[in-house]
Write a structure and sequence with these properties.
Layout lengths: L7 E2 L5 H6 L5 E6 L4 H17 L4 E6 L5 H5 L7 E6 L2 E7 L4 H8 L4
Pfam families: Thioredoxin
Protein name: Thioredoxin
Family: Belongs to the thioredoxin family.
């Protein structure tokens, strides 16, 4: 799993408790160790976590070692970012992006 400061890790077993039952918005990155775009996006998520950590929780889930959750949410490409609030998906983004672009895309939902 790609390790990034400020970004937690969830699994199929912990997804419900840590994401769906969370009190605030949670941004989930579906990732895999072999994914170059995921490695490119990891520091961007770390920067966003540093900026928005008081308003947004950011976690990642490895799609290879936790296959159930990506299937449940129709993840077909990596990286996929899904923003959850109140136990449901409110926004999905596919592919790597800059910090600025990611902040713009999240502004209306956090």
């Amino acid at each position: 799993m790609i390790t990034t400061a400020g970004v937690g890790e969830v699994t199929d077993a912990t997804f419900t408790d840590e994401v769906l039952a969370a009190g605030g918005p949670v941004l989930v990155m579906f990732t895999a160790d072999w994914c170059p775009s995921c490695r490119q996006l990891a520091p961007v998520l770390g920067a966003v976590a540093g900026e928005l950590g008081d308003r947004l929780t950011i976690v990642q889930i490895d799609a290879d070692t936790n296959p159930r959750t990506p299937v449940d949410y129709g993840v077909l490409a990596l990286p996929t970012l899904a923003l959850f609030r109140g136990g449901r998906t409110v926004k999905t983004l596919v592919g790597a992006r800059s910090r600025r672009k990611l902040l713009q895309e999240l502004a209306d939902v956090i």
